[in-house]
Amino acid sequence: MEARSTLVAPPEDGADFIVVANRLPVDRDTSGETPSWRTSPGGLVTGVAPVMQTHKGAWIGWAGVADEEFDPFDIDGMHLVPVPLSSEEVRRYYEGFSNATLWPLYHDVIVPPEFHRTWWNSYRTVNRRFAEAVARTASEGATVWVHDYQLQLVPYLLRGMRPDVRIGFFNHIPFPPWEIFAQLPWRAQILRGLLGADLIGFQRPADAQNFRRAVRICLGLPSSGNLVKIPAAEDPASELGDTTTITRTAEASAFPISIDTEHLAQLARDPQICARAKEIRAELGNPETILLGVDRMDYTKGIRHRLKAYGELFNDGVLDPGTVTLVQIATPSRERIDQYQQIRTDVELAVGRINGEYSGMGHPVIHYFHHSYPRDEMTALYIAADVMLVTALRDGMNLVAKEYVACQTDDDGVLVLSEFAGAAEQLTQAVMVNPHDISGLKSRIAAAVTMDPGEKRARMRAMRESLAEEDVRAWSDAFLTRLQQTDRAGQAEAAALMRTDQHPTDADAQPDSAPGYSSPEDIDITALAAADRLLVGLDFDGVIAPLVDNPMDAAPLPASAAAAEALAADPNTVVGYISGRNLSVLKQLSNAPEGAIFIGSHGVESDFSAIGGEDIGAVDGRRSGGNPAAGTYASGPSNDEQALLDELDAAFTDIRTRTPEEGHGLLRIERKPLGRTFHTRGCSDNRTAFYATELEALAKRLGQLRFLTGHEMFEFALRHQTKGNGLERMIRQTGATAALYIGDDRTDEDAFKKLRTYPEDFPRLSIKVGPAGTAAEVRLQSPDDVAVFLGRLAAARAGR
């Protein structure tokens, strides 16, 4: 453990909001007579600049110049506080421990990490220097946001110096599984360093889960959901020094970073940049297809794999050297490190070999550039490119993929995206690839080159719509909002954890962004209690029934069943169940009260007969006049639909038989009247990833089916319905004047979003159970909390 730090008094004129990163957002310009600074804008600057400008902000980091010290200065509305580094510290702390130890370790050991005590000692020294700079700069009660793997000890050190500040940390790169992280000799110190933060952000849910698991195994600290309990002995701000008193909690959650989507879209519409894009195509010989790769020269980016697949496509005769060219930009990076020198050599040899074998006179099949380009030129390249290749072997996010999508304002272009990049979890309509599978990579590149224009537009439009909502400002807002909530939420969670001896693991959890957990006793139910006619919409699994290994063993908690019975006893309250289960199984397991209504198969099946509505049936969206919520009913699949179900059954059987029984876990196929669900509960991570790839390909081949992904399940539906459509039908059929919906899964997000569309004079409440990002207004932790909440609501309705 790092030595406890000496308390530092807040300065009289300190900063209220501080960003801490290895580098300041500036470069030293020595081209003129007098050296000056120029800003080097990036995604992080865009995300935090508005906060720095509306608060008294400061940015603390290294100026990029070794062996020199600089006074704090202001530029472009930002107050910058330089932290000095010597040449030896740059070699040991930055090039050594940060980039030859942590970087390869955190990226799946693609190259072996090096472990040197002198590097570690330098890392500790520099982290302490950064923490001291923050302690001297932050005002009392300031918010401090520390960034990335170079500064993982800063939160712990800073908390010891300044326990009054609120500390957030964001890790921009992956966090490895324990089996890899355990190699690090200083693993406990790194974990304790990060736990000094109130909120620790990661790019992907899996990264946050890896961190929490490492904390449990290495430090023995229990976690509940996304929260880790910090005993006094582990808290640098505590004087108690014991291992039983809980002083606070730290939250580890996913907050995937994004880009300035609107700014890039504006650049992509700029007439001069559009003209430059046409010039680029002309300069390249106006080929039919331009492929583009934009990467740092780094062994994690999969450039060698990309070039190998590309060259073989010419050798196989799939691509025509006269009509296709690849522009590969590989910007210089960490050139004094041996592995980076080797990757450059390998890439340039491959480029030379492929060009030598397949290029024509004046028509190289690869245009290779080992330097960076200004933003306007990069935008023009994005516009000019027909296919973007992102083949990272492991990447925290990969913002290049998002930048390419943002620049496709005509909804043109195809993104080929590695499933090992964090961006794959948001840009799900990209052509996904496993870059280690060269044959699969080749087939996906070929498919991208020949893709139908209609499919290209549909895929790109969906990705651009997603990015429009999830830009870099939304990312920073989500993180900082959650950071401001951590104190209150953490205190409540700590009190709850101290009342129980149970320390649930989070093997199945996915971290959330906001809102934080609420107590079921604290949720405002005034409007729902007073409503003239209330619809209570409930998901089944994970909401009123705890998740179990065997789905047919699921049963509602007795308290939830009693509350539902009490609610249904009120003539002006209707209880409705909305589930992914098929209708007959849902009715069998739900122990529903008399008068309940049902939506099954994620909105496809329904039974409103208890209220005199439509009889049991299945929604036929083809007969709805374009309004899924107004669909009429058909008892079963048509002949064409049955043929599709038969094809699904055969495909599922084939996919399953191509993998050995070992690793199947509780794999099963659920046959619904109008769809099929592939359940992967208990399967290994690698097996689940394989099934996801195969089923996604199947969904694209059978394009008329709706493909859903949820908690350990993949569903194909014949008719395009959602839980949101189902909730809307329930509201209409019941004549409800207010509505509640409680769900726990990704498929419930449609219902949460649907409720948001109702006017302000329509009382409604959406509740998410458990972790993961959500559109719901309120979050409860477990089905037990749901039971308490429903009991409160039933009592309030009865007492009107």
UniProtKB/TrEMBL annotation:
Gene3D superfamilies: Glycogen Phosphorylase B, HAD superfamily/HAD-like, Trehalose-6-phosphate phosphatase related protein, domain 2. Residues 500-519 are annotated as: Disordered. CDD domains: GT20_TPS. Belongs to the glycosyltransferase 20 family. This is Trehalose-6-phosphate synthase. The lineage of its organism: Bacteria, Bacillati, Actinomycetota, Actinomycetes, Micrococcales.
